[in-house]
Amino acid sequence: MLVASLTLLAVLASGASATLAGTDATSSNATDTEAAEAQAAFADAQTAVKAAAEQRALWTTAQSALAQAQEALEHGKYKAAKQLAEFAAEQARLGIAQMGYKQFQ
């Protein structure tokens, strides 16, 4: 869990938090491609988070990143939304993978 938290902090420090704060281009500057990519990444993350929740393997970092991705999408901050959604999906998949570890069986 510590690694997951540190990974989230690294992602946020690399630009996602600044993007959410409004320093990135808004929807008026975003391209249709960026919007489509962000929406696709968000849909993938939703699926991954749902799967992790169903297996009782959902990490809070995945859930939090998905919520932040949704907020970024709503504000037209597609680059941040995509980064956060990809992180959420990764964290959800890692949570599921962790269930296969010997300690969890």
Quick structural overview:
By secondary structure, the chain is an all-alpha fold. It is built from four helices and no strands.
Number of helices: 4
**Taking all residues together, what is the mean pLDDT?**
81
Number of strands: 0
Provide the structure class: mainly alpha
What is the terminal separation in angstroms? 18 Å
What does this structure look like?
By secondary structure, this protein is mostly helical. It has one domain. Helices cover 77% and strands 0% of the residues. Helix 1 packs parallel to helix 3 (60-74) and helix 3 (60-74) runs antiparallel to helix 4 (78-98). The protein starts with a helix and ends in a 7-residue tail after the last helix. The relative contact order is 0.20. Mean pLDDT is 81; it is low at 1-23.
Question: Characteristics of this structure?
Answer:
single chain; 105 residues; mainly alpha; disordered N terminus
Task: Detail the topology: elements first, then pairings.
Layout: H1 2-23, H2 32-54, H3 60-74, H4 78-98
